[in-house]
Design brief:
The chain is an alpha/beta fold. It has 9 helices and 10 strands. 37% of the residues lie in helices and 25% in strands.
């Protein structure tokens, strides 16, 4: 009998806001180990805001964010950093440092959070670049790369510390359909063999159907989760009109004048 995957992330009763403004409320979900999990929804619904809280950039107004059972919100500084080191992040656009080569960009987390000798850090960085198909380009600057290559390099940097979970913010944004499909295949090739859990913010339906095991859908009006399940389940069975329109790419009917 196959053992049921254990949640690697649990979000419980999360409330997110700034000052008196509540952006998201009553947010509860879990992410199983090894899953490719997608946070989706319309523009301005809080997808990236939720991700920023999950990676520790902001603190919620209330609620819990548990990583392997340990609460990121209440952890002291030392414990918090240990938890954050179990994560890798690919920011939208890649966020590579323009004055550094690819090798130097990927090596940066190792320089900051390990005491490895330079030769060992270079070896690890080259191995990560090899995993994303960029080792021959280790000497190049980001300005010398295509958009797809920058995204791959950013994923390599996110993998530098061998994290259990990698967050991807709109990885397909700005890519043509072929390059986007190649990036989807890369994510699948990393998730299964290396047992990496991926959490992706996206609204790109082709990518969502290609790689997502499960999704949650946020709603700007209700400020909470309005749907959860596999992409196919939500497309074929959701009774929520907004969810139906999103997955069927339908425009809401306008009222007659």
């Amino acid at each position: 009998m196959d053992q049921k995957p254990q949640p690697i992330v649990q979000v419980e009763n999360l409330v997110i806001g700034y000052g008196d403004e509540v952006i998201l409320k009553d947010i509860s979900f879990h992410i199983d180990e090894g899953e490719i999990f997608v946070i989706l929804g319309g523009s301005g619904c809080g997808k990236t805001t939720l991700m920023k809280h999950m990676i520790g950039l902001h603190r919620p107004l209330s609620g819990k964010i548990l990583l392997e059972g340990e609460d990121l919100v209440t952890a002291d500084d030392k414990k918090r950093q240990l938890l954050l080191n179990r994560m890798g992040v690919m920011y939208q656009g890649g966020a590579l440092f323009g004055s550094m080569t690819l090798l130097e960009n990927v090596r940066l987390p190792l320089e900051e959070f390990t005491t490895l000798p330079l030769s060992a850090m270079n070896l690890v960085a080259r191995q990560k670049l090899k995993q994303v198909g960029l080792e021959p380009y280790a000497h190049l600057l980001p300005s010398e790369l295509s958009g797809g290559m920058k995204k791959r390099a950013a994923i390599a940097r996110a993998m530098a510390l061998d994290p259990r979970i990698i967050f991807l913010d709109e990885p397909s944004a700005g890519l043509d359909p072929i390059t986007s499909a190649e990036l989807d295949r890369l994510i699948l090739s990393l998730a299964r063999p290396f047992h990496i859990t991926f959490v992706m913010v996206s609204h790109e339906l082709p990518s969502i159907f290609a790689i997502a095991d499960r999704v949650i859908m946020l709603d700007k009006q209700t400020k909470t989760i309005i749907a959860e399940g596999s992409p196919l389940e939500l497309k074929t069975h959701s009774q929520n009109p907004w969810v139906h329109r999103f997955f069927h790419r339908e425009i809401a009917a306008s009222n007659p004048s």
